[in-house]
Write a structure and sequence with these properties.
Layout: H1 50-59, H2 62-80, H3 84-126
Helix pairs in contact: 1-2, 1-3, 2-3
Length: 130
């Protein structure tokens, strides 16, 4: 048996490597299996982000907020049907579109303040302020 650490040839029934002392697995040994979820036990319900989706739709970016609402509305239905992967995917999509909508809305507000500020500075510098 070869040592996985240093490559030294060891006796077939060796427990540790004669060269480096690394523990050797017996031939045909499998790594310990990961514990599996008990059959029939549902994973926890993912968040649907519906409140966030509605808020960004009202206050930030209407079209992308609607996309977020659509995905948020799909989460609970998919989970209740037993489509846990679909519910998780819809949850992640609702969250992503909520953040994208929020980011675009925040960028638009920031841009408005920059343009307004530049306009005010231009008016002050040109002396056309009344």
């Amino acid at each position: 048996m070869f040592c996985p650490n240093c490559g030294t040839q060891n006796a077939p029934n060796a427990v540790t490597c004669a060269q480096c002392g690394t523990a050797l697995a017996p031939a045909g040994a499998q790594p310990p299996a990961q514990p599996m979820a008990a059959p029939g036990v549902a994973p926890p319900r993912p968040a649907n982000y519906l409140v966030q989706a509605i808020l960004v739709t009202l206050f930030c970016c209407l079209p992308l907020g609607i996309v977020s609402i659509i995905f948020a509305a799909q989460v609970n239905g998919a989970y209740d049907r037993g489509d846990y992967a679909g519910a998780d995917k819809a949850s992640k999509q609702a969250k992503m579109w909520s953040w994208i909508s929020f980011g675009i809305g925040a960028a638009a507000v920031l841009l408005w303040f920059v343009i307004f500020g530049l306009g005010m500075m231009s008016a002050i510098l040109s002396g056309n302020m009344h």
